[in-house]
Specification:
Helix 4 (49-57) packs antiparallel against helix 5 (63-82), helix 5 (63-82) packs antiparallel against helix 6 (88-99) and helix 8 (142-173) packs antiparallel against helix 9 (188-218). The protein is 41% helix and 10% strand. It is globular, with a radius of gyration of 27 Å. It has helices at residues 4-16, 21-27, 35-41, 49-57, 63-82, 88-99, 110-121, 142-173, 188-218, 220-224, 272-277, 289-295, 318-331, 348-357, 375-382, 402-407, 433-436, 481-485; strands spanning 283-285, 298-299, 306-312, 336-340, 366-369, 387-391, 414-420, 439-444, 454-460, 469-471, 503-504. The protein is built from 18 helices and 11 strands. Mean pLDDT is 78; it is low at 227-252, 254-263 and 481-511. The termini are far apart. Strand 9 (454-460) and strand 10 form a beta hairpin. The protein is of the alpha/beta class and 511 residues long.
């Protein structure tokens, strides 16, 4: 029998001969479950150290060493398959890095490694003729990245307010200022009073931000070691006692009790102007990177919950997209619950996705359930988590209603729900879901190359109407003008910053 590296030679030669990716993918179907591994090997330098190591260990009795070499070859091959600009010298650099236990000790999965390579080569100033400098690159966990991002956000808020204070003062102190207000001006005192009040407001906000920054510094460990006490991805959980009898409509989460109106006196509605003056700061969830830009700044609703639905054709990458979102939220310290009702958690398909998309450090923040027979029991379990994923809605009990039993039955949760598509490409379970969800996502499926599949929003209340598309394979926005120009898109700032990793909106106008 031919060895994998020998099979890989076939597809390398096809590629060099100019065969299309579609032709190569079609030919590689014969490889079965080894298809992806062999295609990854085909991108390696056939005379490089990785290929030589594979040949040397293919008949070795030391299985541990053989498995390690195969894993390294697979990781590097996939890196070059995803980014064909990577060179042979860079392949050697990756090989040396992964073989150095001390240098690569914080790389625990293929997704970690691929993310590391992407973060380096994604820099607009990166030159492929230069080395990757993997040894000098400071790898950070997702929790550390979130922590540093939140620190930067608060520092920018403080700096912005101080800048506004300085600009206001210049209007009264500097005659050369464009908007200088002279003491001789008719309305000088009125303008001065407004300015003093604004400066006082900014100073108060700066003090609050500085307090939040200090708390954030104290809570750094919660970000770095997020979720160490949570239920593991493959951890055991107590078996629920089966509840018999009629399934009742679930009661909503506890909400503040409103006072009863006085008898014989009509209940009065709250004046809109008064309501708008009240300081309401709902926490938000802001996922870092392109995934967060696509989903938007999602609020943690004080009453009811946010629902994100996704429907697409079979094999379009729905579950893989949810795994990426799941990993990002768990990395932020969110308690996540995944209902894997289409693929059993013990299956190889499920475990392969876990290895590819879920960082080991985040597994402690993820609970897993494989079957739902009693919705009443599930309600109690869901209350313990922040973000809940269902794959898919059709596997839930028939009398579960999206709006009544999920969106309105819980407060402050974020639900992600996959709908299987019908033969006519409609949402199985009815179009009503498109009205009940806050984010209605769909997938464009490229019939020739799955790597071109992207998700887009048919409705999204949290991204300001932006027409964004996210490539499922790369996890990056498609045709992102901000990235092409080397600039970041404006984001909504957050204040204050709770220790859980979320924030809240601030809507204070700048004078």
């Amino acid at each position: 029998l031919e060895q994998p590296h020998e099979r890989a030679r076939i597809y390398r030669e096809m590629r060099l001969n100019g065969d299309s990716k579609k032709e190569i993918d079609t030919a590689a179907q014969i490889e079965g479950k080894n298809r992806s591994y062999i295609l990854n090997l085909s991108y390696l330098n056939p005379k490089g150290p990785v290929a030589e190591s594979l040949t040397r260990f293919e008949s070795a009795t030391d299985k541990d060493s053989s498995v390690k070499v195969e894993k390294i070859a697979d990781w590097i091959g996939q890196a070059r398959r995803q980014n064909e600009k990577l060179t042979d010298p860079q392949e050697m650099e990756m090989f040396k890095f992964l073989n150095d236990t001390n240098l690569s000790k914080r790389i625990s999965s293929k997704s970690d490694f691929l993310q590391k390579i992407t973060s380096i080569t994604g820099d607009m100033f990166f030159d492929y003729s230069d080395p990757l400098n993997l040894a000098k690159f400071k790898y950070k966990t997702e929790g550390e990245n979130v922590y540093e991002g939140e620190v930067e956000v608060i520092k920018e808020e403080i700096s912005s307010r101080q800048k506004n204070i300085d600009e206001i003062k210049q209007r009264f102190l500097n005659p050369s200022s464009k908007n200088y207000i002279s003491p001789e001006a008719k309305d000088y005192q009125i303008a001065k009073n407004i300015a003093d009040n604004k400066i006082s407001q900014y100073n108060t906000e700066i003090q609050e931000l500085q307090k939040e920054l200090q708390l954030l510094y104290q809570d750094k460990g919660k970000y770095v070691n997020a979720g160490s006490n949570q239920v593991g991805l493959f951890g055991t959980r107590k078996k629920r006692r089966k509840v018999t009898g009629v399934l009742n409509s679930p009661a909503p989460d506890p909400t503040p009790v409103q006072p009863s109106p006085v008898k014989n006196k009509p209940t009065r509605a709250k004046n809109l102007a008064t309501a708008m003056q009240e300081k309401i700061e709902n926490p938000i969830i802001s996922i870092p990177g392109d995934l967060g830009r696509f989903l938007g700044q999602v609020e943690v609703k004080p009453v009811h919950s946010v629902v994100t639905t996704l429907d697409a054709e079979q094999g379009s990458g729905k579950t893989r997209l949810f795994f990426q979102i799941l990993n990002a939220l768990a990395g932020m310290g969110k308690r996540c619950l995944f209902y894997s009702l289409e693929e059993h958690p013990a299956s190889k398909l499920f475990k392969d996705k876990v290895e590819q998309y879920i960082s080991p450090a985040n597994m402690q923040n993820i609970g897993i359930i494989d079957e739902v027979t009693d919705w009443n029991a599930e309600r109690e379990t869901i209350r313990e988590y922040d973000c809940i994923f269902f794959d898919s809605f059709q596997k839930l009990p028939a009398d579960v209603d999206l709006d009544r039993d999920i969106r309105k039955a819980f407060n402050g949760k974020w639900f992600f729900i996959i709908y299987q598509q019908t033969g006519t490409k409609g949402m199985r379970g009815g179009s009503k879901a498109a009205f009940d969800g806050d984010q209605i996502l769909k997938v464009f499926k490229d019939q020739e190359d799955y790597r071109n599949n992207y998700v887009y929003a048919n409705k999204n209340r949290y991204n300001d109407g932006q027409d964004l598309k996210l490539n499922i394979f790369t996890g990056m926005l498609v045709g992102d003008p901000g990235r092409e120009l080397g600039v970041d898109q404006p984001t909504i700032r957050r204040f204050p910053m709770p220790a859980s990793g979320s924030g809240s909106l601030i809507a204070t106008p700048i004078l």
